[in-house]
Amino acid sequence: MSDRPCERILVLYSDFWIHAPDFLVEFLVFLKHWSMGSTRARIAIDAMGGDHAPAEVVAGALKAQEELGVEILLVGDPQQIEDSLRQQDAIGRVSTGQLEIVPSEGAVEMHEEPLSALKRKPNASINVAMNLVKQQQADAVVSAGHSGAAMAAALLRLGRLPGIDRPAIGAVLPTMIPGSSVLILDVGANVDCRPKFLEQFALMGTIYSQCVLGVPEPKIGLLNIGEEPSKGNDAAVRTHQLLVDNPNIPFVGNAEGRDVLSGKFDVIVCDGFVGNVLLKFAEAVGEVVVQVLKEELAAGLKNQISAPLLQESLKGFKQRVDHVEHGGGLLLGVAGVCIISHGSSQAASIFNAIRLAKEAIDNQVLERIRSSNHQSALEQEAVN
Questions:
Q1: How far apart are CA 122 and CA 131, in angstroms?
Q2: DSSP string of 154-171?
Q3: Could you check whether the bond before residue 54 is cis, i.e. omega within 30 degrees of 0?
Q4: Where is 202: in which H helix or E strand?
């Protein structure tokens, strides 16, 4: 247990988060950051992770530091990071706040098996970044590197939250309703899931939707091949019953594939195999639609005067469907805020991933999941 008094309060009195007034919650979070030497969110960035690292990672981090008011810790090879910083300085983007370079040795490559690579490379950038959170020197980790390595490092170094058997990666997608989005989880952390895992995903998704996405009463759905409770395989039927029986989950029923982006659901749970296929298919469809619109509009323009107006509308459409705008997925269920971004992430994606991390910190997502699980355990004991 932590030696810091405010950390002991957060751990020992987790049910406090359910009942406390918002100003008291914010005050305790302030004390937590104050004990770390800052009142701003400190984000550890895996600067060596991703296809375009470290240049694009550094560019996105600097933009986030400037616009979001976060403190950045760039983890990686100091020489390469400094070279990237000089490149940014040359184009007029200079660090305006606190930026720290944390040395590491190497990175986990995409072709490497995660666990063995993490053991062979204890000072790899993702290991060092996770250790910063474990040692309370950072509030969150953002990585566009090997997603399996990021998840494994989070589990090994941060551990799971009490009451969570498996963490899940949550991804936010746009819906047909303007200003509305849907959280899909899991999208890749667990290819096989027991019903109780999916129940835990639904609970974490409920809290995230309420606290971060601002949905007071989120509608939770289970991805299935039909609306009826009896549809699907044995795991789907058993999961449906668990969700119906859990009073802490506002479950509204099964969600078919056509319902995912309809706006009928705020959170949809599924196993990581199906979720990952769904996510990548949705991203591909978005890219195809944007490209087709560009081609058709360009071919059909009779009056070039209207071109700027159409381009502005197309830009707004692209912002709604482009996965770059969402930055990545939050690894829910581990004892730390961890954002896993696309390996192809460029500066805009890194910026949005840092924004996601900041939102999770500001809205005390971990504390609220911990307190909800604590409350559920008490209710289960009372029933038994």
A1: 10
A2: HHHHT-BPTT-SS-EEEE
A3: yes
A4: helix 195-211
List strands edge to edge, sheet with 71-76.
99-103, 71-76, 42-46, 140-143, 337-340, 329-332, 168-174, 181-185, 267-269, 220-223, 251-255
Assigned token pair, 364:
């005390």
Stretch (H or E) spanning 259: none
The tens digit of pLDDT for each residue in 152-188 reads 999 999 999 988 999 999 999 989 998 899 999 999 9
Distance in angstroms (rounded) separating the CA atoms of residues 108 and 340: 14
* DSSP letters spanning 67-90: HH--EEEEEE-HHHHHHHHHHHHH
pLDDT tens profile 252-303? 999 999 999 999 999 999 999 999 999 989 888 888 887 887 777 766 655 5
Could you state, in order of their start, the residue ranges of all structural domains in the chain? Answer: 1-160+333-346, 165-328
* E strand intervals along 6-62: 42-46
Q: How far apart are CA 273 and CA 11, in angstroms?
A: 33
Helix, strand or coil for residue 179? Answer: coil
| CATH no. of 1-160+333-346 | 3.40.50.20
**DSSP string of 104-148, one letter each residue:** ------TTS-HHHHHHH-TTSHHHHHHHHHHTTS-SEEEE-S-HH
Q: Which residues contact 199 (CB under 8 A, 6 or more apart)?
A: 239, 242, 243, 246, 249
42-46 and 168-174 beta bridge pairing: unpaired
For tokens 């991805």, name the residue: 223
Interior CA angle at 202 toward 199 and 203, to 5°? Answer: 90
Helix axes 234-245, 195-211, angle to 10 degrees: 50
Looking at CATH, the fold of the domain delimited by 165-328 is given as: Isopropylmalate Dehydrogenase (3.40.718)
Q: What is the pTM of this model?
A: 0.82
Q: Which helix (H) or strand (E) holds 176?
A: none
Query: Across the chain, where does the E strand assignment appear?
Result: 42-46, 71-76, 99-103, 140-143, 168-174, 181-185, 220-223, 251-255, 267-269, 329-332, 337-340
